[in-house]
Q: What sequence folds into this?
């Protein structure tokens, strides 16, 4: 997560700090970290649905509905970020990342072995990644573990939110070629982010237990 300077530190909602301090068991830590991620992922998938349907609106020349799609996709991305960042903050406060990194290493014989996990998942049809993407994810994990990998994912998502917010609907209505360009580039960027998130989910579930589940600490 980016370092934010010169801001007033907000007090946690009433009861939150007590819950964090009281989260002693591994399963409770996983629950507190995983719950907002599940909600964030639901928002992220909703954004993808809007962007896919944007192509239908443009085929039908319904620019008004297309503009609504862009707005809804942006709102869903913002909602996803709120949940993901909440999880990220809780994970740091709970010192969850070292705990989880150790569990991933243990499950894979002492090291992350990210390429092995992703290639195994790919052989089962669970994901489709080229070697360059696998190597990039592997380098991030080796440099900083799950915390670095998730921070990178959040940075990509923030940049995508800015891209959606910066799209000028009025200008595109006057020049329809801008709509076509935006429709294809936005869904391409979204798919890249979605696959990145999918890879992290696979590493953190299939890579540990070989069984996909929402909360591997349960």
A:
């Amino acid at each position: 997560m980016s370092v934010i300077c010169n801001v007033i530190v907000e007090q946690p909602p009433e009861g939150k700090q007590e819950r964090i301090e009281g989260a002693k068991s591994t399963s409770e830590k996983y629950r507190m970290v995983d719950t907002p991620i599940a909600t964030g992922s639901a928002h992220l998938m909703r954004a993808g649905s809007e962007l896919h349907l944007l192509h239908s609106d443009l085929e039908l020349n319904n620019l008004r509905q297309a503009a609504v799609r862009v707005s809804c996709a942006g709102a869903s991305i913002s909602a996803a970020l709120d949940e993901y960042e909440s999880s990220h903050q809780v994970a740091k406060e709970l010192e969850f990342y070292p705990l989880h990194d150790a569990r991933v290493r243990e499950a894979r014989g002492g090291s992350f072995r990210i390429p092995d996990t992703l290639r195994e998942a790919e052989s089962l049809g669970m994901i489709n990644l080229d070697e360059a993407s696998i190597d990039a994810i592997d380098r991030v994990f080796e440099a900083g573990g799950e915390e670095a990998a998730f921070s990178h994912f959040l940075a990509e998502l923030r940049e995508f939110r800015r891209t959606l917010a910066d799209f000028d609907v009025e200008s595109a209505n006057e020049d329809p070629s801008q709509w076509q360009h935006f429709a294809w580039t936005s869904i391409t960027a979204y798919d890249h982010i979605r696959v990145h998130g999918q890879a992290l989910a696979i590493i953190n579930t299939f890579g540990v237990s070989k069984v996909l589940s929402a909360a591997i600490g349960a």
In short: Residues 1-13, 212-218 have pLDDT under 50 and may be disordered. The chain has nine helices and no strands.
